[in-house]
């Protein structure tokens, strides 16, 4: 699983992931916990407050994540959140 993200894309990645799991009443507590852990510990951004992040639409996320490796990382983390 390719989970390395450049520092300038962490906020985009998290905002896009928040948008992707915001269905049927929003993200579950488990999804928020996993994403918060990935954001704080793996991507080293404990300062990001998931509750106050701007949520990106699928198109905004696609426009922001241009490289294949960044898109693959997004997809792999999204799958983990869906599980």
Question: How would you characterize this protein structure?
Answer:
- The model has no long low-confidence stretch (mean pLDDT 92).
- The chain is an all-alpha fold and 83 residues long.
- It has helices at 10-20, 29-42, 58-64, 68-82.
- Helix 1 (10-20) packs antiparallel against helix 3.
- It is globular.
- It has one domain.
- The chain contains four helices and no strands.
- Helices cover 57% and strands 0% of the residues.
Summarize the structure.
By secondary structure, this protein is an all-alpha fold.
Ranges with pLDDT <50 over ≥5 residues?
Answer: none
Order of helices and strands: HHHH
Shape: globular
Number of strands: 0
Q: Termini separation (Å)?
A: 15 Å
**Major β-sheet annotation:** none
Mean pLDDT across every amino acid position: 92
Protein structure class: mainly alpha
User: How many helices in DSSP terms?
Assistant: 4
Oligomer: single chain
The Rg value, from CA coordinates, equals: 11 Å
Tally of separate domains? 1
Q: Helix share of residues? A: 55-70%
Strand content: under 5%
Characteristics of this structure?
83 residues, mainly alpha, 4 helices, globular
């Amino acid at each position: 699983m390719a989970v390395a993200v450049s520092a300038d894309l962490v906020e985009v990645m998290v905002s896009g992931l928040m948008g992707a799991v915001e269905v049927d009443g929003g993200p579950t507590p488990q999804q928020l916990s996993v994403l918060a852990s990935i954001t704080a510990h793996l991507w080293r951004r404990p300062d990001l407050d998931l509750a106050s992040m701007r949520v990106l639409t699928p198109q905004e996320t696609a426009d922001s994540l241009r490289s294949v490796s960044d898109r693959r990382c997004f997809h792999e983390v999204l799958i983990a959140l869906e599980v």
